[in-house]
Fold:
Amino acid sequence: MGGGARTEGSLSSVPRLSEVLAALDALWPAERAEGWDAVGTVCGDVDDPAAEVDRVLFAVDPVQEVADEAIKLGAQLIVTHHPLYLRGTTTVAATTFKGRVVHTLIKHDIALHVAHTNADTADPGVSDALAGALDLRVTGPLVPDPTDPKGRRGLGRICELDHPETLRDLAARAAARLPATAQGIRMAGDPDAVVRTVAVSGGSGDGLFDAVRAAGVDAFLTADLRHHPASEAVQQSAIGLIDAAHWATEWPWCEQAAAQLDAISDRHGWGLRVHVSKQVTDPWTTHHSSGAPN
Structure:
């Protein structure tokens, strides 16, 4: 278990930061991330034997509001899905918004760890969490990871509904189950079309249309669908499209990931207190339906 300090009055130990980060790396190995991605520990002294963790905060975005929330919680570790620095930078000055986050984390001894595309393709991964939020039964990955002998890892998930329902009803289910955002849920296709199978992909999904067509599903639920790929998809086939906010499709992963770390904590007797941020960090705050006459 690694020799963390015993919590007074209990049998639980407080794990070292290095132990918790090792557990996260086992869940989402960095080598399974895309080559362009920036995952792993962004901030925190892994080699400090005095660095311990008893509270962890999961969130989608490593923004200032999440850093401030971690301070209020007394968390020593934040785990986010999105990277803080996806591309290179020449400054971490506190006058920049990302630099301010870094300065805040260092000042308050808070580590930051990122699981991005390595969490997308994991088993379970981001799309499993999305499917679970909608009570969809996963049958396999949409784009299988060829290095997985079990055939369970990969991008997106192909799912079945327990009972056929209309595209309209499936979109309404997504609107009711996913966290509220200004965008809400958009739908393309025949609202009365019957859906038995659906592909889901948390986050931006319009690069997966070839795989979706090959899967032969009735509908595709994802985020960030652009005009041309969506238009071409519905012109080429009768597939229904459901487009949610990027943040909303990935937030269920935070709860799934927190439960995974909770289970590890229980096995090791760590007594970690794991929290999921409820802050809506989707950048869009207002939506108005356009109504100008043509």
Notes: The domain at 121-244 is CATH 3.40.1390.30 (Udp-n-acetylmuramoylalanyl-d-glutamate--2,6- Diaminopimelate Ligase; Chain: A, domain 1). The chain has a mean pLDDT of 95. The chain has two domains: 5-118+251-276, 121-244. The CA atoms of residues 106 and 255 lie 26 Å apart.
